[in-house]
Amino acid sequence: MILEEFSLSDVTINFDRRRKPVKSAERSAGPYPYYGASGVVDHVANYLFDGQYLLVAEDGENLRTRKTPVAFIATGKFWANNHAHVLQGNDLANTYYLAYAIERLDISGYLTGSTQPKLTQASLNSIRVSLPQRHEQDAIVAVLRALDDKIAVNDRIAECSLALADAHFSRAVEGVPTGPETFGSLAQVGGGGTPSTKVPEYWDGNIAWATPSDVTALGAPYLFGTSRRITDAGLDNCASVLYPAGSIFMTSRATIGAFAFPRVPTAVNQGFIVVVAPDEELAMWLFHEMRDRVDEMRSLANGSTFLELSRKNFKAMGVRLPTPAVRKEFAGKAIPLHQRAAAATAENATLTKLRDTLLPELMSGRLRVRDAEKVVEEAV
Asked: Of the candidates 22, 148, 12, which has an alpha carbon nearest to the alpha carbon of residue 85?
């Protein structure tokens, strides 16, 4: 495969002039996605674009950290503010291919601004990209989009399953008063800690150790792994225990109310409240009860630097607890929905890893499209 290098301006059509920011207070709610630098930030009643476009972040710390994509595809009818450049590939470039290519590039040299990173239109236009011929781009995109489409389907399955479980909870909890039982009386409530970072022997072991960023980054509340791991010695020398799979993790400082069910035994740092219920039925009820009362929990938080919900205040919160029969009926509906959502999320982790492995091999020509097609067919 022969690659040719271009400036981005040589292979794109720019639509930045059509962008229009709207303050949140002035937006009318509606069905159309409202895009910013990192994706959808709202839904509005009108749209500016209709079609398939490449959006590239114009500003924001994410341009440096790359925790979320800086280049992504928007399709259909949508609105875009002035924090994202809006492009389409021309006859030389497949728009999807450009999204994949830019995501792989180191763009740090194109950024300006010491406090707030910015990718100006001039800098964007000067980005150099290496492209194969258009028909080869189209073939590569077809392979990768098969994986992306399956990932999108799984995301929708997880989203709908969780929404249905929430709906079942809303019906089950209707009219149930806050009783004398509290989170502290119904379950074990714990926290976490951090082993000394000055002791290498505490780190890079086999024990999952979660931080709030592991949870806030999740698309669905199921934690299969963590960005850092600790050793047995690290666990022995921090304030966390090894919590069992099926515990309820809730972030309790700065960001209050992001949730996860760990799918493997996991320790946590001090940014969590952890609830360990005596059985799965009660755990399912408490999970939804906690998610339904995040605003109340935030009102109980305090702190000068950042808000934090103390375990003491959390444990003292009364719980709306229906009869055992109602809880059992709810769990019978909710548990299978969570299992389905978790399975879809787990499959997405595998598909994402496969896509990210195939991507550089295909784009460099080291892997032929027909060979990649066979791998993808087996996966989807």
From this structure: 12
Residue with tokens 């896509």: 355
Structure tokens at 371: 């060979």
Question: Which amino acid is present at 196?
Answer: S
pLDDT tens-digit series, residues 338-364:
999 999 999 999 999 999 999 999 999
The model carries a pTM of 0.86
The residue behind tokens 């595998």 is 350
**How are the residues of the chain apportioned to helix, strand and coil, as percentages rounded to the nearest 5?**
45, 25, 30
Length of the chain counted residue by residue: 380
The neighbouring-strand residues paired with 56 are 71, 85
Q: At which residue do the structure tokens 């309820």 appear?
A: 248
Extract the tokens encoding 239. Answer: 């304030």
Would you call 374 helix, strand, or coil by DSSP?
A: helix
pLDDT tens for residues 78-104?
999 999 999 999 999 999 999 999 999
Helix axes 280-292, 134-173, angle to 10 degrees: 100
Alpha-carbon dihedral angle through residues 165, 168, 174, 176, given to the nearest 10 degrees: -70
Locate all alpha helices (DSSP H) within the chain, ordered by sequence: 62-65, 95-104, 121-126, 134-173, 183-186, 212-216, 232-236, 280-292, 294-299, 311-315, 324-364, 369-379
Tokens of 12: 């794109």
Q: What is the DSSP letter of 357?
A: H
Encoded amino acid at 304, one letter:
S
- Distance, in Å, from the CA atom of 105 to the CA atom of 99, rounded to the nearest integer, reads 10
- Least Cα distance to 80 among 120, 118, 38, 28 occurs for 38
Half-sphere CA count of 15, side-chain side, radius 13 A: 21
